[in-house]
Design a protein that fits this description.
The protein is α/β, with parallel strands linked by helices. It has one domain: TIM Barrel. About 30% of the residues lie in helices and about 20% in strands. It has eight helices and 16 strands. The strands form four sheets. It has an eight-stranded parallel beta barrel, surrounded by six helices. Strands 5-6-14-11 form a four-stranded antiparallel β-sheet, with no helix packed on it. The chain has a two-stranded antiparallel sheet with strand order 1-2. A hairpin with a 4-residue loop joins β12 and β13. α2 runs parallel beside α3 and α4 crosses α5.
């Protein structure tokens, strides 16, 4: 692989801009059996909470036209177990280690962050799409001023580079991104899943016990692309673009829309090594069109 795909995000070198998205790759071990994950630019861990969490009951995955819905509910082993069992393994790999942290209260976020401050990682991805249990389940990332409390508090104690993962269900995603920049975030990633619903007409009931679930996959790509374009135009911090990327053409579109790095999520369930196809296609595109580096097409729209 040439240096055509080499890029920099918030001062961190990525050998290429392709990252596996949180919640779709575990901690990398399983996928490393299908392909060499060190070919990737980075890996974003499964979302972690300060303590282990069993996730949601009932159906968790439901296929839709051109996508899937999920209601996993942040099932995870907890930060301590991740540090003990997986962190060193990932850090030994030649890729950027992005750790995703969530929480159901401000105290959850703080406790998890304090633990992660004690270890080495490259980027902390702050997931503000979690339900705030103290506010009746409303997501932290829906309202800009509610989200500001989390971003400000965690930025104040986080010793790592910090990227904030934005929810497309926010009232104003551009204002949300601007707020993250104001509060000192090193970058933003978007979009998370879209709030959606499925109905079992035989049972005459919602498919999911929580009624609503997150929609991902190719169906959301045009909307996610629009949001990435809007945010990239509005902020000066770098953007990680994600949402329905399944081909190298999709990835190039997100880069042209202003993303510095792209994350591959649901597509990995379709084909575990699809990120390799995307990498190879991006490389060919740059070579065939006479570009020396991918930054030449970033944000050209």
């Amino acid at each position: 692989m040439s240096k055509r795909l080499e890029t920099e995000f918030a001062g961190i070198r990525f050998k290429n801009p392709v990252v596996l998205a949180s919640g779709t790759c575990g901690f990398g071990r399983e996928l490393d059996e299908y392909f060499d994950i060190e070919r990737l630019g980075g890996l974003c861990s499964k979302g972690l909470l300060s303590h282990p969490h069993g996730g949601n009951d009932g159906i968790r995955i439901w296929e839709t036209a051109s996508g899937i819905m999920n209601s996993v509910g942040l099932e995870n082993p907890g930060v301590d177990t991740f540090i003990e069992n997986d962190l060193d393994w990932i850090n030994q790999k030649d890729l950027v280690n992005i750790v995703n942290l969530g929480g159901h209260s401000l105290e959850d976020y703080e406790e998890g962050m304090e633990k992660l401050n004690r270890v080495d990682l490259d980027i902390l991805e702050l997931n503000i799409s979690c339900p705030n249990v103290k506010s009746g389940g409303m997501n932290f990332g829906t309202k800009t001023e509610v989200a500001r409390q989390i971003v400000r508090r965690i930025r104040g104690i986080c010793r790592h580079k910090m990227v904030v993962k934005l929810s497309p269900n926010a009232e104003d995603i551009v204002s949300l991104a601007k707020m993250c920049q104001e509060e000192g975030a090193d970058g933003v990633s978007l979009t998370n899943t879209f709030l959606a619903m499925a109905v079992d007409i035989k049972k005459k009931a919602p498919v999911f016990l929580n009624t609503y679930a997150g929609l991902s996959g190719p169906a959301i790509k045009p909307i996610a692309l629009r949001m990435v374009h809007q945010v990239a135009k509005a902020v000066s911090i770098p953007v990680m673009g994600l949402g329905g990327i399944t081909t190298w053409q999709d990835a190039i579109e997100f880069i042209m829309a202003g993303a510095t790095v792209v994350q591959i999520g649901t597509a990995t369930f379709m084909k575990p090594d699809i990120s390799m196809d995307i990498l190879d296609g991006m490389e060919r595109y740059l070579e065939e069109n006479g570009y020396e580096n991918i930054r030449e097409i970033r944000g050209i729209l």
